[in-house]
Each structure stands twice: as C-alpha cells, then as structure tokens.
Amino acid sequence: MGISVIQSIIDGILMGGVYALAALGVSLIFGVMKITNFAHGALITVGMYMTYEVCTMLGVNPYIILPIVILAMFVIGFIMQRYLMNLIINAPGHNQLLLTLGMSIVIHNLILLIFSANPRTVIVSGFEKAIRIGSFTINKPKLTAFVIVVVVAVLIYFVLYKTDMGKAIRATSMQREGATLMGINVKNVNATAFGIGIACAGLAGALLTPIQYMSPTSGDTYQLTCFVIAVFGGLGNIGGAIAAGLIIGVVQSLASFILGGSWSDMIIYLIFVLTLLLKPTGLFGKKGG
Amino acid sequence: MKNLKRTVSIILTLITIGTMFTGCGKQTGSDDPESTIKIGSVHPLTGNYAYEAQSIINAQKLAIEEINNAGGIKSLDGRKLEFVVGDSQGNADTGASEAQRLIDQNVVALTGTFQSSVTQTCMQEAEKNEVPFVVTVSNNVAMFENGFKYCFRIQPNANVFSNDFIDYIKAVKTDDIKTAVLINEDSITGTESGDVIAANLKAAGINLVDRVTYSASTATLSSEVTKIVNAAPDMLITIGYFNDTSLLVKELNERNVSFKLVVGVANGGISDSKFIEDFGSTVENFCDVNYRYNPNSEKAKELLAKYKDKYGEEMSVHAIYGYESIMVIADALERAGSTDSEKLRAALSSTNYTNTILPQSVGIQFDEKGENINAAGVMVQIQNGEHKVVFPESFAESEIILDK
Amino acid sequence: MNVAKETKNKKQFIIIKLVILIILCVFVFISPELFSKYEMNIIITILSMAYLAQCWNLMSGFTGQFSFGHAAFYGLGAYTSSLLYTEFGISPWAGMIFGMIVAGIVALIIGYLSFYYNLKGDYFALATLAFAEILRSIFKNTEAFKAAAGVSITYKKDWTVFQFSGKDGYLYIIFIMLLIITFGIYFLKKTKTGLYFVAIRENEDAAKALGINAFKYKMIGLVSSAMLTALAGTFYAQYYLYIDPTIVFGSNVSVNAITPCIIGGVGTVFGPILGAFIIQPVSIITNAYLSKYIGLNMVVYGAILCAAIILMPNGVIGLFKKLKIKVLARRQNGGAVG
C-alpha cells in the first residue's frame, strides 16, 4: 500500500509539472492584464494538434520540434492580444472575459474543422516502456515533460527578472498607468506577456501529446484545472504557479487512487472554492483580488 | 424611450417572422402514390462522434438503395424510400429539435442516435408525436423502461452485453482464471454494464478483486493502473471507449503489466480495427463481448464488400445497426401495407425478421418494451491482427486462444 | 416642455406600450395556427433562452456580480422537480416550487460565502463556475440522484403533471414566464431596490459609503435570480422529459444564460430578449447552411459572438442608445443654430 501511495505521488508530481506550465500561462496573463483567459484550454489543444501535425509531417520525435511550437504559439498569442483583445482593453472587465470565451469557441471548432474528431496520439519510439526504479515505475513522456517544464520555468524566470522586456512586463503588471509614464510601450508589453502565456499553454499541449490521446475537446479538461492552480499559487506569481501545479498534481493523483477518478475532480473544485473564500491571493500570492 | 420601445418591438416581430422563414420551405409528403416514403435519421454528424455517425448514415443509405433497387415497398405499389437526415450535434436538445423537424416533414419512422442522452429526448419526441422510432445505436437499459409504445431497439442493450459476458466467460474460461479486476468509465455506459457484471461475476466462478472507475476524458490512468497492478488479477475486464481504452493499454504496456485474459464489454476500443493498428502485437488475444454481424452469413459478407466498394473503408460494427434499422422498418411497411403510424407501429411490434445479418439464430422480434428479445452479443478475439468471433460456437470463426 | 404636455405624452406612451403588449399576446396565442411544430420548437427555445438570460440579467446585469455558474440553479430546479415526480409522484407544478426553494437555499449559501469573503469580479465568476461544477460532480456520482443515468420522465398527456401533448401549452407558459420576469425587471428599475442594485454595480464602495447595505442587496439579487432560474430548469425537464448532470449542470447552460445579454445589452430590460432572438436564428442558420464542413458553423457562430463583443460592448440596446444620443444631439445643435 505504501508503495502505491508513493507511486501515486510520483505520478502526481510528473503530471503536476505539465499542469504547472499551463497554469503559469494563466497566472502571467492575469498578473499583467487582469484578464481571465477562457481560451486557455482551447490553446492547449492547439499546441497538441500542432505538435501532432508537424511530427507526422516531418516524421520526427515531438521533442525536436518543441522550439517551433513555442515560437508559433507565441506569435499566435501576440497577434491575438495585440490585434483582437486590445480592441476592447478599455471595455468593462467582463467583456474581455467573454471575448476569450468567444475565442475559445472559434478555436475549438477550427481544430474540429481542420483535423476532424478522430483520436490521435504520438508514439515516441523508445518511450514505450517506463523506467523501473525498484518497485516504482516512471513514465518516460511524463518525466521528459517534467524536465522540460523545469527548464522552461527557469528560462521564464530569467526573461522576467533579467531582461528589459521582463522588467517592463513586471512594471506594467504592478502599475499600468505609471508604466506608460515611464515610456513603456504598454501595448507591446501586454501582447508579449500574452504571447508568453499562450506559448506556455501551447508547450503544455505539445508535452501532453505523447502522454495522452487528443481530441478537439481535450484542452477543455485543463481549463478549470489551470485556473485552480493559478489561483491556488497566487495569480501573477510564477513560482507560486509551479509549486501549486505540483501540489495539485499530487492531490489529484492521490485522490484518484484513494477515492476513484470521478471524485478526484470534486476535490480539485473544493480546493478551488476554499482558496477563493479563505485566501484568494493564493498560497504564495502577492496580488490581491 | 418611446421610439426605442417601438423600434424594439418592431425588430422583435421582424426577427420572429424571419425565424419563421428559416424553418419554412420544406416540402411535406403525403399519401400520394407517386411520392416517396420518408425515413428519418438523427445522428451526431458534427462533433466528436461525426466519424461513427457517418458510417451509420452510409449503411442506412446503402439499405435504402437496396430496397429501392429491388422495387421499393411492394405492398404499397412499389413506392420508393427516401432518406432524410438530421444532425443532433451531440446535444439532447438539438437532437429533439431535429427529430421534430423530420417529423414535420412527415417521415413515417425515425432512427438514431448513437448517444444515450440524445436518444432519450428523441424517443420522447417520437412518442409524443406517435411516430415509430427504431434505435440504431444506444446501450442504456433505463430508457426502454418508460413504457414507450412507439420505440424499438434492435441492438443488444447493456444488460444483454453484461449477461452474455458472464455466460460466455463461464463457458470459455480455463480453470487457472480465478480473479478479475473490472475497470469501467463512469458515465451511464460503463456504470450500467459494470454494475451487472460486478454483481454476477461470482456466478461465473470468478472472484472480483477490485473495481476501478475513471472519467472518460482523463489525461492519465496511472492511479488506476497502480490499483490494477496491486490486485494482480488473472483477468482484466474493461468497459470504455476508444480513447480511454487506448490510454489504458498504453499505460499498461509501459509498466509491462500482463494478464491471462483481457476482455472488454461493448468496448469501443478493442472492437475497432484502428486499435489493432495502433497497438499491434501487444493486444494480441484481447477479447471483447460486443455487437457484430454474423460472420457466417453470406448476406453479411456481401454487405461488407458492397460497403467497402462504395465508401472505400471497412464497415464499422455500428453501421450494421444502421443497415438493419432500415431493413426492419421496410419489412414492417410491407406487412402493414400502409404508412399510417398506428398500423406501422403494430407491424413493427409483431416483427419476426429472419433475413437478418445479426448473430441470432432466430429472427428479430420485439417484446412489449420494444427490445429485441433475441439480441445477443458475440465474443471476438484479436487473432493475428484480426477480429475473429470465438463464441458462441454457432457463429464462431475460430477457437479462442487462452494460453499465452 | 410643460407639465401638461409631459403627462399627455406619458399617457400616450402607456397606451402604446399596452397595445404592443396586446398584439404580442394575440400573436403568441394564435402561433400554433401559423407555425409548424418545428418552428414552434424554435420559438420556445428562443423564449426559454430569453427567460434564462433575464434571470441572469436580474443578478449579473443589475448588481454587476457576474455569475458563470447559473447552471447550478438551473440543474437544481430541474432535478428537484423531476426526482420529486418520478420518486414520489409529486406534480412538477408543486415540484417547481420546491425547486425554487432548493435553489434559493443553495444560493444563500453560495452568496453568503462569496459576499462575506468579499469575492468580486473574476474571482466571484470563477467561484460560481466552481460551484456549478461541484454540483455536477455530486449529481453525476450519487446513486440517489440517478448518477450518470439521468432522470427520464414518462410521457403522459396530462396537464396536471406539467405535460402537454402539443407545443401550445409550453409556448404559453414560457411566454408568460418571460412576460412576468421582464415586467418585474422593468418595474424593479423604478424601485428603491433597483436603484440600489445599480448603485452597487456602478461603484460598490461609494454605495456602501452612502449607507447602502451592499451585502444584503447582492444577496437579494443572487437569491431571486437563482429561484427564477430554477423554474427554467423545471421547464426544460418537462419539455424534453429527460435530464442528466451534463445537460442541466453543464457549462452550456451557464454560457446560454450570458450570451443573449452580451448581444442584447447587459443590464437593460429588453437586451436579453433581443439577444436571444438574434443568437438562436444565427445559430440555426449557420447550422443549416454550413454543416457540410464539420465545425464551420460553430466557428462562424463564435466569430459573430466575438465581433458583437468588440463592436457592441453594450449590446444592441447600447448601440441604439448611442445612436439615439447622437441623433438627439444633432437635433439640439441643429435647433440652436438653425
């Protein structure tokens, strides 16, 4: 029994890494623009399908084309924000929320239109068997995803804290009006932040491709989980999102093991509600509601 | 304010009138001997099940052509059948709305819908309008417990699959298969069958060590696999769809878990040829108790060939029920000699359709609930990369392989 | 304008409104003769969407507390009346009232928790979404509520159990429901409560500073909206005679409660109705003509939604108001100069 629990925890940490990456995107976007992105799940799906297509077309390992996916998703995110969402940047907050909802319908169905509903996955050669360490098994695609997430998290930290654009992003998220006065091009900053957020979503999707089977609705299951993690870790707090992702991943895995898959979703929502009620700034949060 | 209100009211009226016209303009049939007899079909042509829905529609079209080419409905002066299609989009409301639309076009019967919740609302609609409804694909047992008079189902329902599973496994298992783990997805499909199996497995001489449930849309089944590994059963029983069963097999393979026997029950993955393509030798000898055509039926073989010829792909097992639904309706029309809904309903009720391509030694006959009393599943096994029926013996193509 | 002219205009105004109302009622009454069953179905769908949107509008449009989880109350209404009927034989007419009570109680809990902890804006919206999902999960996994199988109601041609053989009965009922709530909102705007709602929406802190008990009024908004939404749930259950957790607690319902308001105009009296009358035909038309390419109809639908949000941030009514102001301004300026 003890072994199974530890196995559960290991699985939870690995999946948690991927969740964390997707949630990181949500957190960043909210932190900078105060927008809750309802199209996040749909964009994760885009990342999945993009990876599948390019992989199958070029006949290569999905991990090789990750940089392409990251770049493409960044561009998509940048354009989406700069030329679509920016149009209503000054509209009441709920309109922005709803625009992302509308966008998620469009994206979701574009995928259906282009790729049809047949389920797909990518089998990475050499990954068919899990790694055995003692009585524990470690799923290779999940392990690889975890490693990549750690690398990316460090990279994002670097971008946010060591580059000028990063500083501009952080400045804008703290004080939008003040940032403009300082000569920061807020439009570009917003678009860049959104682009990074979407690149995270797309990358999460790419990493999920060899892990699960995808269908046009696959991303939807992550939509709420991402929000839960982002809020739990503190909206706008990058490190918090990562930590929260791991925690939620473990909670979900253990709940699945002890209570059964159907109830584990409930636990996540309960955590969400409790967080919103008791500590809306999140476990590690620094930004208020 | 006054102007605003006036404008709003005018617009409301205009839009209502406009709505009128979106629905208008469809011809309505009649009992005119020159006109065709319309049969309606509601399936999820858009959405996640578009692929399966299309295969059912294709088979139905094939059936309609066959009947028309053979001279139409002879007892009605050779009137031809016309096929009218509706898209449920996978939604219960939209399905009901489409059913209503087809009923307004005077279809004599409706068929559908592949998804239990959509079938339920369509059945209600058909019953209300007194239009016979023949289910193409839908497992759920509860929906035929409502005392419907106009609804009929040809395929085996979840209880039949579950009971067949128990009977067949009892017959084919070897003595070294003593324990089992049941894993089922948690919607109505998995739960209904799962409950029956869990309750009756003892009767087949097998001890159920654990029962695991999961949500079909999950991204990972690692916890579930851990539980299975812990239980170390001789046999794994799995009830699920294509995606989730594939994910399960993938993760089982990763951890090198094997069983003496793996059997699905109405499993959307194991019975699909793509499943074999994806997993190759790792799923060799997997079994599934599912619906299928009768492999020994000449008519079935001809139909398969015709389908492949016309549509360029293998006919799916779902499509079989599309074909049979049309055949049964046409047969009832012949016997009724009328398109009157009550006469057609009565004819359907007294159906004894023996020219069936289904694995039944007797004809399709309906009980007072509308269920096919002779419906049965068969056990198929993946042998050398192909599906072969292994039980019951009267329909078997091959013997079951039990030692690995 | 002098007082006499104003009162005369007001009287004319009321007469015109009454006339329009009477015409509408007559129109609805004779609709079964004019339309096929399929078309009636469309109208009923539009009216029920408009009703649901009005319920949402009552709370989110007027108090400004955006709810993304109205499906919670819809589902509770549907399940309460349906289970009471199938398990205990209680007529859905009575079951409907129980549904309202259950939804009201749950709304009290949700509202108390949320408003006490000061959840606002996006956080509140997400919390309501989470509550709806929690309820969906509970109903999906609990045998006593029929779990994933859902509740099926046996068809009976009996109006005492809220069933009608044709579409007429349903049409009349949903029309009356819509009339009542629209009237309610129309008069609400003129009452103290209505004013407080709007004050809270525009600036909650300022309202509180003025002595308005924001907590109390937000609760009133939420609970009344929830109770009325429950009625929509019962109506759905009686119209389609089948419900399951995903159908009545799913995000589809919550989205359908919101989109007509966005298109028509959040916080207006007629916005939700207008919105429903625009969206449904758009959806039907895109489906009818674009279904060849799987998914294209929804892409267009989503695109239209996005366009509406961008171009008409205050809905169609908001657009009218803007135009009206422009026209009035031009008239005034024209008068002054010429």
The CATH homologous superfamily of the largest domain in chain B corresponds to Response regulator
Proportion of beta-strand residues of chain B: 15-25%
- Low-confidence blocks of residues of chain C: none
Helix content of chain C: over 70%
Range of strand content of chain C? under 5%
Please compute the radius of gyration of chain C using only Cα atoms: 21 Å
Order of H and E elements of chain C? HHHHHEHHHHEHHHHH
Helix % of chain B is: 40-55%
Mean pLDDT of chain B: 88
Largest sheet of chain B, described in full?
7 strands, mixed
SS-derived structural category of chain B: alpha/beta
Number of helices of chain B: 12
Q: Within the largest sheet of chain B, what's the order of strands?
A: 7-6-8-9-10-11-12
> At the third CATH level, what is the topology name of the largest domain in chain B?
Rossmann fold
Keywords:
heterotrimer, A: 289 residues, mainly alpha, two-stranded antiparallel ribbon, 11 helices, globular, B: 404 residues, alpha/beta, Rossmann fold, 12 helices
Description:
The complex is a heterotrimer of chains A (289), B (404) and C (338). Chain A has 11 helices and 2 strands, in the order H-H-H-H-E-E-H-H-H-H-H-H-H. Chain A is mostly helical and 289 residues long. In chain A, a hairpin with a 2-residue loop joins strand 1 (131-133) and strand 2 (136-138). The longest helix of chain A has 32 residues, at 2-33. The N and C termini of chain A lie far apart (41 Å). Chain B is an alpha/beta fold. Chain B folds into 2 domains: 37-156 and 297-349, Response regulator (Rossmann fold); 159-290 and 378-395, Response regulator (Rossmann fold, 3-Layer(aba) Sandwich), CATH 3.40.50.2300. A 7-stranded mixed beta sheet of chain B has the order 7-6-8-9-10-11-12, with helices on both faces. In chain B, helix 2 (50-69) packs parallel to helix 11 (317-336), helix 5 (158-172) packs across helix 6 (188-200) and helix 11 (317-336) packs across helix 12 (341-349). The longest helix of chain C has 32 residues, at 3-34. Chain C is 79% helix and 1% strand. The model of chain C has no long low-confidence stretch (mean pLDDT 87). Chain C has 338 residues and is mainly alpha-helical. Classes of the chains: A mainly alpha (289), B alpha/beta (404), C mainly alpha (338). Chains B and C meet through helix 1, helix 3, helix 4 and helix 6 of B and helix 1, helix 2, helix 12 and helix 14 of C.
